[in-house]
Amino acid sequence: MENNFFLNEIYPTLEKNLSDKAKSNNLQDYIKKFIDKNNNVLFHTAPSKRLYFNEDHEMILYKSCNVHPDDIMKIIRRSTILKESWRTFNKAFYWLGLLAARYYQIKGNEKELYSTLTFTALKLYSSIQYKFFRFEPNENVMDYTINTLSYKYDIKKYGTMFKLIFETVKGNHEKYQDLLKRGTDEDFKNYLIALWTRLNSKIKNITSEYMNIKDQGLYLNTDEETEDKETGLKRDVDNTSLQITKIAEKMSNRFITGNLDDKIIRIAAESCGISQNILKTAIYNIIGKKYKEVNLIFTYILQIFTIDEEQNLDNILSKDFLVKCINVYNRSNTTNQRIISLKNLLDEWLVDCSDKYAATNREATKGAYKKAVFMYFVLYIQKSIN
Protein backbone atom coordinates (compact mmCIF):
# COMPACT_ATOMS: atom_id res chain seq x y z
CA MET A 1 0.00 0.00 0.00
CA GLU A 2 1.38 3.40 -0.97
CA ASN A 3 1.69 6.08 1.70
CA ASN A 4 0.36 9.62 1.26
CA PHE A 5 1.65 11.20 4.43
CA PHE A 6 2.97 14.30 2.66
CA LEU A 7 -0.28 15.03 0.86
CA ASN A 8 -2.47 14.26 3.84
CA GLU A 9 -0.47 15.95 6.61
CA ILE A 10 1.70 18.66 5.04
CA TYR A 11 0.08 19.71 1.78
CA PRO A 12 -3.17 21.16 3.22
CA THR A 13 -1.23 23.62 5.38
CA LEU A 14 1.07 24.49 2.50
CA GLU A 15 -1.85 24.96 0.12
CA LYS A 16 -3.66 27.26 2.53
CA ASN A 17 -0.62 29.46 3.02
CA LEU A 18 0.58 29.65 -0.60
CA SER A 19 -2.99 30.56 -1.58
CA ASP A 20 -2.25 33.77 0.28
CA LYS A 21 -0.94 35.91 -2.58
CA ALA A 22 1.30 37.93 -0.27
CA LYS A 23 3.06 34.83 1.04
CA SER A 24 3.45 33.34 -2.42
CA ASN A 25 4.81 36.60 -3.83
CA ASN A 26 7.18 36.90 -0.90
CA LEU A 27 8.60 33.46 -1.67
CA GLN A 28 8.98 34.18 -5.38
CA ASP A 29 10.55 37.59 -4.74
CA TYR A 30 13.10 35.99 -2.43
CA ILE A 31 14.01 33.41 -5.06
CA LYS A 32 14.57 36.16 -7.62
CA LYS A 33 16.78 38.11 -5.22
CA PHE A 34 18.75 34.98 -4.28
CA ILE A 35 19.50 34.27 -7.95
CA ASP A 36 20.45 37.87 -8.65
CA LYS A 37 22.66 38.06 -5.56
CA ASN A 38 24.54 34.97 -6.72
CA ASN A 39 24.73 35.92 -10.39
CA ASN A 40 28.56 35.81 -10.37
CA VAL A 41 28.32 32.12 -9.41
CA LEU A 42 25.26 31.08 -11.37
CA PHE A 43 26.10 32.92 -14.57
CA HIS A 44 29.64 31.65 -14.59
CA THR A 45 30.61 29.41 -17.50
CA ALA A 46 31.70 26.49 -15.32
CA PRO A 47 31.02 24.90 -11.91
CA SER A 48 34.05 26.67 -10.48
CA LYS A 49 32.58 29.00 -7.91
CA ARG A 50 30.97 27.98 -4.66
CA LEU A 51 27.23 28.53 -4.19
CA TYR A 52 26.45 29.00 -0.53
CA PHE A 53 22.98 27.75 0.33
CA ASN A 54 22.41 27.47 4.06
CA GLU A 55 19.58 27.22 6.58
CA ASP A 56 18.99 30.97 6.47
CA HIS A 57 18.13 30.67 2.77
CA GLU A 58 15.80 27.76 3.47
CA MET A 59 13.72 29.65 6.02
CA ILE A 60 11.77 31.58 3.39
CA LEU A 61 10.19 28.34 2.19
CA TYR A 62 9.27 27.14 5.68
CA LYS A 63 7.79 30.53 6.59
CA SER A 64 5.85 30.92 3.35
CA CYS A 65 4.33 27.45 3.69
CA ASN A 66 4.00 27.69 7.49
CA VAL A 67 5.59 24.25 7.81
CA HIS A 68 8.31 23.33 10.31
CA PRO A 69 11.18 21.16 9.01
CA ASP A 70 10.74 18.79 11.95
CA ASP A 71 7.26 17.91 10.68
CA ILE A 72 8.76 16.93 7.33
CA MET A 73 11.46 14.81 8.95
CA LYS A 74 8.93 12.93 11.08
CA ILE A 75 7.07 11.92 7.94
CA ILE A 76 10.25 10.84 6.17
CA ARG A 77 11.06 8.51 9.05
CA ARG A 78 7.49 7.24 9.44
CA SER A 79 7.06 6.64 5.73
CA THR A 80 10.31 4.64 5.57
CA ILE A 81 10.87 5.90 2.03
CA LEU A 82 14.53 6.67 2.69
CA LYS A 83 17.46 4.94 4.26
CA GLU A 84 18.98 6.86 7.13
CA SER A 85 22.36 6.67 5.38
CA TRP A 86 21.06 8.71 2.43
CA ARG A 87 22.30 12.01 3.83
CA THR A 88 21.62 14.00 0.67
CA PHE A 89 17.90 13.29 0.64
CA ASN A 90 17.31 13.39 4.38
CA LYS A 91 16.80 17.13 4.29
CA ALA A 92 13.34 18.61 4.80
CA PHE A 93 13.91 21.50 2.39
CA TYR A 94 13.93 19.28 -0.71
CA TRP A 95 10.63 17.65 0.12
CA LEU A 96 8.88 20.90 0.97
CA GLY A 97 10.27 22.39 -2.24
CA LEU A 98 8.65 19.61 -4.28
CA LEU A 99 5.36 20.00 -2.41
CA ALA A 100 5.38 23.74 -3.15
CA ALA A 101 6.19 23.04 -6.79
CA ARG A 102 3.24 20.64 -6.91
CA TYR A 103 0.97 23.40 -5.63
CA TYR A 104 2.01 25.70 -8.48
CA GLN A 105 1.72 22.84 -10.97
CA ILE A 106 -1.84 22.06 -9.88
CA LYS A 107 -2.71 25.77 -10.07
CA GLY A 108 -1.25 26.04 -13.56
CA ASN A 109 1.31 28.67 -12.50
CA GLU A 110 4.19 27.59 -14.72
CA LYS A 111 6.53 30.47 -13.95
CA GLU A 112 6.25 29.93 -10.19
CA LEU A 113 6.50 26.16 -10.69
CA TYR A 114 9.88 26.37 -12.43
CA SER A 115 11.10 29.11 -10.10
CA THR A 116 10.40 26.90 -7.07
CA LEU A 117 11.89 23.79 -8.68
CA THR A 118 14.98 25.77 -9.66
CA PHE A 119 15.35 27.09 -6.11
CA THR A 120 15.18 23.50 -4.86
CA ALA A 121 17.72 22.41 -7.47
CA LEU A 122 20.10 25.21 -6.49
CA LYS A 123 20.47 23.69 -3.04
CA LEU A 124 21.09 20.32 -4.66
CA TYR A 125 23.70 21.90 -6.90
CA SER A 126 25.46 23.57 -3.97
CA SER A 127 26.04 20.19 -2.32
CA ILE A 128 26.96 18.44 -5.59
CA GLN A 129 29.48 21.13 -6.52
CA TYR A 130 31.08 20.89 -3.07
CA LYS A 131 31.21 17.10 -3.32
CA PHE A 132 33.24 17.22 -6.52
CA PHE A 133 35.27 20.33 -5.69
CA ARG A 134 36.10 20.56 -1.99
CA PHE A 135 38.40 23.39 -3.01
CA GLU A 136 37.51 25.72 -5.84
CA PRO A 137 39.16 24.46 -9.04
CA ASN A 138 41.94 26.24 -10.89
CA GLU A 139 40.20 28.71 -13.20
CA ASN A 140 42.79 28.48 -15.97
CA VAL A 141 42.51 24.69 -16.06
CA MET A 142 38.72 24.89 -15.95
CA ASP A 143 38.67 27.47 -18.74
CA TYR A 144 40.76 25.17 -20.91
CA THR A 145 38.42 22.30 -20.05
CA ILE A 146 35.26 24.18 -21.03
CA ASN A 147 36.83 25.47 -24.25
CA THR A 148 37.76 21.97 -25.37
CA LEU A 149 34.41 20.31 -24.54
CA SER A 150 32.14 19.29 -27.38
CA TYR A 151 28.54 20.45 -27.62
CA LYS A 152 27.28 17.14 -26.27
CA TYR A 153 28.02 18.68 -22.87
CA ASP A 154 25.19 20.87 -21.63
CA ILE A 155 27.52 23.48 -20.17
CA LYS A 156 28.88 24.05 -23.66
CA LYS A 157 25.39 24.13 -25.13
CA TYR A 158 23.88 26.52 -22.57
CA GLY A 159 26.90 28.62 -21.64
CA THR A 160 26.20 29.23 -17.95
CA MET A 161 25.58 27.15 -14.86
CA PHE A 162 22.19 28.74 -14.26
CA LYS A 163 21.00 27.81 -17.73
CA LEU A 164 22.33 24.27 -17.29
CA ILE A 165 20.53 23.92 -13.95
CA PHE A 166 17.29 25.43 -15.27
CA GLU A 167 17.24 23.20 -18.35
CA THR A 168 17.98 20.16 -16.17
CA VAL A 169 15.02 21.10 -13.96
CA LYS A 170 12.82 21.60 -17.00
CA GLY A 171 13.81 18.33 -18.66
CA ASN A 172 13.32 16.38 -15.46
CA HIS A 173 9.89 17.89 -14.83
CA GLU A 174 8.69 17.28 -18.37
CA LYS A 175 9.51 13.59 -17.94
CA TYR A 176 8.33 13.11 -14.37
CA GLN A 177 5.57 15.70 -13.88
CA ASP A 178 2.99 12.96 -13.37
CA LEU A 179 4.84 11.92 -10.22
CA LEU A 180 4.31 15.34 -8.66
CA LYS A 181 0.70 15.41 -9.74
CA ARG A 182 -0.06 12.00 -8.23
CA GLY A 183 2.02 12.83 -5.16
CA THR A 184 2.49 9.66 -3.16
CA ASP A 185 5.45 9.64 -0.79
CA GLU A 186 7.20 7.24 -3.17
CA ASP A 187 6.48 9.59 -6.10
CA PHE A 188 8.15 12.50 -4.37
CA LYS A 189 11.16 10.32 -3.59
CA ASN A 190 11.50 9.14 -7.18
CA TYR A 191 11.13 12.68 -8.54
CA LEU A 192 13.80 14.02 -6.20
CA ILE A 193 16.24 11.19 -6.92
CA ALA A 194 15.74 11.66 -10.68
CA LEU A 195 16.51 15.38 -10.41
CA TRP A 196 19.60 14.75 -8.29
CA THR A 197 20.82 12.00 -10.63
CA ARG A 198 20.57 14.23 -13.70
CA LEU A 199 22.29 17.17 -12.08
CA ASN A 200 24.95 15.05 -10.42
CA SER A 201 25.75 13.34 -13.72
CA LYS A 202 26.28 16.64 -15.54
CA ILE A 203 28.67 17.98 -12.89
CA LYS A 204 30.46 14.64 -12.65
CA ASN A 205 31.10 14.63 -16.41
CA ILE A 206 32.61 18.12 -16.30
CA THR A 207 34.72 17.13 -13.28
CA SER A 208 36.08 14.08 -15.08
CA GLU A 209 37.18 16.20 -18.03
CA TYR A 210 38.64 18.79 -15.69
CA MET A 211 40.71 16.19 -13.82
CA ASN A 212 41.96 14.76 -17.11
CA ILE A 213 43.04 18.21 -18.31
CA LYS A 214 44.62 18.96 -14.95
CA ASP A 215 46.60 15.69 -14.96
CA GLN A 216 47.99 16.64 -18.37
CA GLY A 217 49.08 20.02 -17.06
CA LEU A 218 47.02 21.93 -19.63
CA TYR A 219 45.53 25.35 -19.01
CA LEU A 220 44.69 28.62 -20.72
CA ASN A 221 47.29 31.33 -20.55
CA THR A 222 45.09 34.43 -20.63
CA ASP A 223 48.01 36.84 -20.70
CA GLU A 224 48.20 36.38 -24.44
CA GLU A 225 45.71 35.99 -27.23
CA THR A 226 47.87 33.75 -29.40
CA GLU A 227 46.72 30.57 -31.04
CA ASP A 228 48.07 27.16 -30.16
CA LYS A 229 49.57 25.74 -33.36
CA GLU A 230 48.63 22.16 -32.53
CA THR A 231 45.11 22.56 -31.16
CA GLY A 232 44.11 25.81 -32.84
CA LEU A 233 42.72 26.91 -29.48
CA LYS A 234 42.91 30.62 -28.83
CA ARG A 235 44.11 31.54 -25.39
CA ASP A 236 41.24 33.92 -24.85
CA VAL A 237 38.91 32.48 -22.26
CA ASP A 238 36.33 35.21 -22.66
CA ASN A 239 35.96 35.23 -26.44
CA THR A 240 33.17 37.39 -27.82
CA SER A 241 30.71 34.55 -28.32
CA LEU A 242 31.17 33.34 -24.77
CA GLN A 243 30.85 36.85 -23.39
CA ILE A 244 27.63 37.42 -25.30
CA THR A 245 26.18 34.21 -23.91
CA LYS A 246 27.11 35.20 -20.37
CA ILE A 247 25.79 38.75 -20.67
CA ALA A 248 22.55 37.66 -22.38
CA GLU A 249 21.85 35.12 -19.65
CA LYS A 250 22.62 37.63 -16.92
CA MET A 251 20.42 40.27 -18.54
CA SER A 252 17.56 37.79 -19.07
CA ASN A 253 17.57 36.81 -15.42
CA ARG A 254 17.60 40.41 -14.23
CA PHE A 255 14.90 41.35 -16.71
CA ILE A 256 12.42 38.65 -15.68
CA THR A 257 13.12 38.95 -11.95
CA GLY A 258 13.45 42.73 -11.65
CA ASN A 259 11.10 45.69 -11.85
CA LEU A 260 10.21 47.86 -14.82
CA ASP A 261 12.39 50.93 -15.23
CA ASP A 262 10.07 53.94 -15.56
CA LYS A 263 12.87 56.21 -16.76
CA ILE A 264 13.72 53.86 -19.64
CA ILE A 265 9.99 53.47 -20.40
CA ARG A 266 9.69 57.26 -20.68
CA ILE A 267 12.75 57.69 -22.89
CA ALA A 268 11.82 54.85 -25.25
CA ALA A 269 8.16 55.85 -25.50
CA GLU A 270 8.84 59.55 -26.09
CA SER A 271 11.54 58.79 -28.67
CA CYS A 272 9.11 56.69 -30.68
CA GLY A 273 6.02 58.85 -30.14
CA ILE A 274 3.91 56.29 -28.30
CA SER A 275 2.11 56.23 -24.97
CA GLN A 276 4.22 55.37 -21.93
CA ASN A 277 1.33 53.32 -20.52
CA ILE A 278 1.06 51.26 -23.72
CA LEU A 279 4.78 50.52 -23.68
CA LYS A 280 4.77 49.76 -19.95
CA THR A 281 1.90 47.31 -20.34
CA ALA A 282 3.63 45.61 -23.26
CA ILE A 283 6.93 45.19 -21.36
CA TYR A 284 5.06 43.95 -18.29
CA ASN A 285 3.25 41.32 -20.36
CA ILE A 286 6.47 40.28 -22.09
CA ILE A 287 7.99 39.57 -18.68
CA GLY A 288 4.97 37.46 -17.74
CA LYS A 289 4.41 35.63 -21.01
CA LYS A 290 7.71 35.55 -22.87
CA TYR A 291 10.25 35.10 -20.09
CA LYS A 292 11.57 31.94 -21.72
CA GLU A 293 12.41 33.83 -24.92
CA VAL A 294 13.91 37.11 -23.71
CA ASN A 295 17.41 35.67 -23.95
CA LEU A 296 16.99 35.80 -27.75
CA ILE A 297 16.51 39.54 -27.99
CA PHE A 298 19.44 40.30 -25.71
CA THR A 299 21.59 37.98 -27.82
CA TYR A 300 20.46 39.60 -31.08
CA ILE A 301 21.23 43.11 -29.81
CA LEU A 302 24.67 42.17 -28.53
CA GLN A 303 25.47 40.39 -31.80
CA ILE A 304 24.32 43.39 -33.82
CA PHE A 305 26.64 45.66 -31.87
CA THR A 306 29.71 43.40 -31.83
CA ILE A 307 29.43 41.59 -35.16
CA ASP A 308 27.51 43.90 -37.48
CA GLU A 309 29.03 47.09 -36.11
CA GLU A 310 32.40 45.50 -35.26
CA GLN A 311 32.42 46.94 -31.76
CA ASN A 312 33.99 45.69 -28.56
CA LEU A 313 31.64 44.71 -25.75
CA ASP A 314 33.53 47.12 -23.51
CA ASN A 315 31.93 49.93 -25.51
CA ILE A 316 28.40 49.09 -24.34
CA LEU A 317 28.63 51.89 -21.79
CA SER A 318 29.52 54.44 -24.45
CA LYS A 319 26.99 56.62 -26.26
CA ASP A 320 27.86 54.73 -29.47
CA PHE A 321 26.02 51.66 -28.21
CA LEU A 322 22.54 53.16 -28.52
CA VAL A 323 23.39 55.09 -31.69
CA LYS A 324 24.84 52.13 -33.55
CA CYS A 325 22.05 49.74 -32.47
CA ILE A 326 19.37 52.20 -33.61
CA ASN A 327 21.18 52.89 -36.89
CA VAL A 328 21.29 49.20 -37.75
CA TYR A 329 17.65 48.79 -36.72
CA ASN A 330 16.56 51.74 -38.90
CA ARG A 331 18.19 50.55 -42.11
CA SER A 332 15.49 50.07 -44.74
CA ASN A 333 15.25 46.95 -46.88
CA THR A 334 17.88 45.28 -44.74
CA THR A 335 19.05 41.76 -45.53
CA ASN A 336 20.60 41.42 -42.08
CA GLN A 337 19.11 38.17 -40.78
CA ARG A 338 19.55 39.17 -37.17
CA ILE A 339 17.53 42.35 -37.63
CA ILE A 340 14.87 40.48 -39.59
CA SER A 341 14.63 37.79 -36.90
CA LEU A 342 14.59 40.41 -34.14
CA LYS A 343 11.76 42.40 -35.76
CA ASN A 344 9.76 39.22 -36.37
CA LEU A 345 10.22 38.28 -32.73
CA LEU A 346 9.03 41.71 -31.59
CA ASP A 347 5.99 41.39 -33.83
CA GLU A 348 5.11 37.98 -32.36
CA TRP A 349 5.55 39.30 -28.82
CA LEU A 350 3.46 42.40 -29.31
CA VAL A 351 0.61 40.54 -31.00
CA ASP A 352 0.37 38.46 -27.84
CA CYS A 353 1.36 41.11 -25.28
CA SER A 354 -0.23 44.36 -26.50
CA ASP A 355 -3.93 44.70 -27.30
CA LYS A 356 -3.24 48.09 -28.89
CA TYR A 357 -0.64 46.61 -31.22
CA ALA A 358 -2.82 43.65 -32.15
CA ALA A 359 -5.76 45.94 -32.90
CA THR A 360 -4.02 48.32 -35.29
CA ASN A 361 -3.46 47.73 -38.99
CA ARG A 362 -1.36 50.86 -39.47
CA GLU A 363 2.21 49.78 -40.22
CA ALA A 364 3.72 53.06 -39.01
CA THR A 365 2.10 52.59 -35.60
CA LYS A 366 3.26 49.00 -35.39
CA GLY A 367 6.75 50.10 -36.35
CA ALA A 368 6.79 52.68 -33.57
CA TYR A 369 5.67 50.10 -31.00
CA LYS A 370 8.33 47.62 -32.08
CA LYS A 371 11.07 50.21 -32.08
CA ALA A 372 10.08 51.42 -28.60
CA VAL A 373 10.33 47.88 -27.20
CA PHE A 374 13.67 47.46 -28.99
CA MET A 375 14.94 50.70 -27.46
CA TYR A 376 13.81 49.59 -24.01
CA PHE A 377 15.97 46.47 -24.28
CA VAL A 378 18.96 48.39 -25.64
CA LEU A 379 18.79 50.94 -22.84
CA TYR A 380 18.19 48.18 -20.30
CA ILE A 381 21.41 46.44 -21.38
CA GLN A 382 23.39 49.64 -21.02
CA LYS A 383 21.97 50.34 -17.58
CA SER A 384 22.42 46.80 -16.25
CA ILE A 385 25.73 45.79 -17.78
CA ASN A 386 27.72 46.22 -14.56
Please write the string of helix (H) and strand (E) elements. Answer: HHHHHHHHHHHHHHHHHHH
Q: Structural class of the secondary elements? A: mainly alpha
Number of strands: 0
Overall domain count: 2
The number of helical segments is 19
Shape: globular
Could you give a short account of the major beta sheet? none
Amino-to-carboxy terminus distance: 56 Å
Helicity range of the residues? over 70%
What value does the average pLDDT take? 88
How large is the radius of gyration?
23 Å
Beta-strand percentage range: under 5%
Name the poorly predicted regions. 222-238
Question: What does it look like?
Answer:
- The chain is globular and about 70 Å long.
- It has 386 residues and is mainly alpha-helical.
- It folds into two domains: 5-216, no CATH class; 240-384, no CATH class.
- The chain has helices at residues 5-18, 21-37, 39-42, 55-65, 69-79, 92-107, 110-132, 139-148, 154-158, 161-182, 185-216, 240-257, 262-272, 276-289, 294-308, 320-330, 337-353, 355-359, 363-384.
- It is built from 19 helices and no strands.
- The chain starts with a helix and ends with a helix.
